[in-house]
User: Fold this.
Amino acid sequence: MIEAGLLVSGEDIAVPYDRFRDRVMFPIADWRGRVIAFGGRALDKEVSAKYLNSPETPLFHKGATLYNIAAARKAAHEGAPVIAVEGYIDVIAMVTAGFEATVAPLGTALTTDQLALVWRMADEPILCFDGDDAGRRAAYRAVDLALPLLKPGKSLKFAALPDGQDPDDLARSGGRAAIEDVLAAARPLAHVLWTRESETGPFDTPERRAALEARIAQVTATIADEAVRRYYKQDFVARLRQMFAPQRFAAKEGGAPRRTFAERMAGAQMFGGRQFGSGVRLSGAVAARLPGAVEAPYVAASPQLAASPVHRGHRAAIPRREALILQATINHPRLLHDHLEELAAAEFRHADTQKLKGALIDVFAHHFADDFSKEGGADAKAERAALATELTRRGFAELLKRIERTITTPAVWGAGPQAAGADVLLTWKQLIALHRQWHSLTRELKDAETALGQDNTEANYARLRDVKATLASIEGTEALIEGFGASSGRPVRSL
Assistant:
C-alpha cells in the first residue's frame, strides 16, 4: 500500500497513515481499464489541497495517462467525439450528458504523452476549457505544446465554455444541447494561434505590424513537420495580407483605377538593385507579402520549374526523359521482367505518358508476362512487334509516334532497338535514377521558391541557389549517357 501510494510513510513518520483520508475517491485506470492510481477531492473546504492524486509509482505516471481513458477509447472506436476537459468532475458531467469519449489530465496541464493518447483516439480531438482568463491561458499553453507535434491530418480544436461555467454547470442549465452548441463552435488550432498573436494590437504602425509578422514566423518555425509548417506559413501570410490590406481608392471619375503599391511593385524587374536567379525576381516575392496584394499568391518562375510538365499541363510536349523510359521499355520488353516495379514507381507528370505507362504494365501483366523472353535474342523483334500491336489496338498509335518525335537525337543509344543487353540495362538504370532525382529536386525547388516568396532571407535564397545548382549538375550528368553503347558495337569518339 505504501508502494502504491495509498499510505504515507517516512523515517520521521512512526505509523504510516492514509493519504486520501476525508476525500471522495476517483479511481484512475489505464487504457485497459485496470486501476493504477486514485484521485481524491477534499470534503473539508479548509484543506489546502482541494484535489490530490496518487504519487508516481511503478504503475502510475501522472503525465502519461488520462482520466477515463479506457471508456473513452472504446466510445471513440464507436464514433463518439473525443473531448478533453480539465478535471474529474468535468468528465463525469460530460459522460452523464452523453459524451462518453471525454477525458481529462490528472491535475496538471496537458503533456505530450497525453496529447499522443488523444491523437490515438481521434485525428482532431476537441480541447474544452473554461471561458475565463485561466481557461484561455490553458488553451494557449496547449497550442504551444501541440505545434511541434503537428502532423498531416493530426491537429486540435478548441472549445470555450461560457464565462463562469464549467461542463457540470452547463449540463445542468442547458442539458446536452447546450454542450453541443459549445462543441459545434470549436475553432481549429490555427485560428486560436492567430487570435493569440493578433489580440495584442493595435497594429497602426509599420513597426508593430513587423513585430506581429516576426512573432508569427517565430511560432510557426517550431512546427517540426515540413508540410504542415509550409501550410501554416501560407495561411498566416494570407491572414496578414487581409488584415493589413488598405482600402482601394478609385481615380478621378472616368479614369483608370489607381494601382496599389504592391501592384506597382509586382511589375518591377528589380527591387533594391538585386535579382534572384534566372526568372526569380525579388519583386514578385515582395509583392506577394505586401499588404494590399490581393492577386494570386507568388508563383515560381525558375526556368527548370516553368519548363517542367508540372506547370505546362497535359497539352505540353512530352518530357524527353519520360519518352526515353517508355521507348526503352517498348523496344526492350524484357525490361518488364525484372524492372516492372521500377517502371510502376516512376512518377510521370504528363497525363499521356502516365496512361501509356499504365497500359504497358497492364499488357505485360495480363497478356505477355509468360511470353516475353528475359534474355531477348531472336525473339526480341517479335516481342517488340507484339507489344506495339497490342498498344495500337488500345488506341496508343498516335502517342507512340509522338514519343518517337520527342526524341530528336539518337544520343541515348541504350533506348534504341539495336542496343545490346548490357547497354540497355545501364541506360535504364541511369534514366530511372536521374528521373527520380530530378522529380525530387523539382519539388524541392518549388518549395524553395515558395519559401523565398514568403520570407525573403539569405537562408532561403541560399537554399534556392543550391537546389538550382544541383538540378544543373543533373542535366550535365544526363549527357554522360550519350557515351553508352560500346557493347552494342557503337563507335565512340576518342577524346
About this structure: Confidence is low (pLDDT under 50) at residues 247-316, 479-488, 490-495.
